[in-house]
Amino acid sequence: MTVALLLSLAGLALIDSTSIGTLFIPVWLLLAPGPVNARRILGYLATIAAFYLAVGLLLVWGGSRLADALGGALDNRGVLWAQLVLGVAMLALSFRYDGKRRPRTGGVLRWRDRATAGDSSARWLVGLALLAALAEVATMLPYLGAVGLLATSGVGAVAVVVLLAGYCLVMVLPAVLLLAARVARPALVEPVLARLNAWIVTKAGNALGWILGIAGFLIARDAAARLELFDLIGR
What parts of the sequence cross the membrane (predicted)? Predict the structure, then answer.
């Protein structure tokens, strides 16, 4: 386990903390009129985190078994060069989302309608969390990138569980902090939540560019480090 791996995982987790399931829906739930039921929202966030932890463990262990079956082929320089090209391509693609195009907010508004249409019961929020997680899991590039880093890092099974659990906690941490602030100081936090909601509705369509760019950079950086390209530059 290296510092670079930990920093990469932390960065990817913070990116994942801004997704529809981990930030947008919690903001909308916190903006609902009336007192906030912290236990139910925490249950929602726990469901999101547990779902991604389970999926991540399946992918990491499945990927590790595949790597063993391939006899270390994933450490082949050709594979690492392909990973580097993929990361650079994602970084280049991110520049297409330059914020000058008209944002597509239809999908975001549909998720807001789903979040505010229910009765906010514990069962409804758990179902909403699972729906959001299932809808996003295939498109959460930072999380898939983190799973890929863990699958090829060579760390032990216990470390994988701890790192993925920590990743999922960081992923929901901003929403937990917003919840705590909303309960403790609602008058101060509600304007912040309202501004966040306005940003989500108008700017969230461009967030994919940032996600692609940062995830691409981290994936490319990992490949470059394992190819020892930084050592060549430093000579």
Answer: 6-29, 41-60, 80-97, 124-145, 157-184, 196-220
